Amino acid sequence: MASRKLGMYTLVLSVLLMSYHGCRFKEKTFNIEIENRKAKGGMEVIQVKQGEMVTLWCTTDETAIIHLHGYNIEHVVKPGKSTVFTFKAYATGRYPITAHSFGEPIPGKPQEETPLVYLEVLPQ
Questions:
Q1: Terminal-residue alpha carbon distance, the chain
Q2: 68 lies in a domain?
């Protein structure tokens, strides 16, 4: 009888440990270097899985407003400084990361939208 209880406790503990391990999400970090109004290395796709924590380090050679579409995350990135985007990848799909303007904004002038890279969030 004691052997049976020990076996049951072992089984329950194993299931709990496996479910805990399955609930933990990985963290992914990527660098986006912008030079001459383009992502260094050309267009690329950043792939992550739904539920993962994502960190994007952005640097640029001129001031730019960088926008992650679909997640509505936007930051001003200035030359000589790294700007960090940190978020949980909750929505699956492919989303452009664009620069909405380069240089200092000019009142009344519409903002350009320059695609830099894509974020692709795959289902778990």
A1: 41
A2: yes
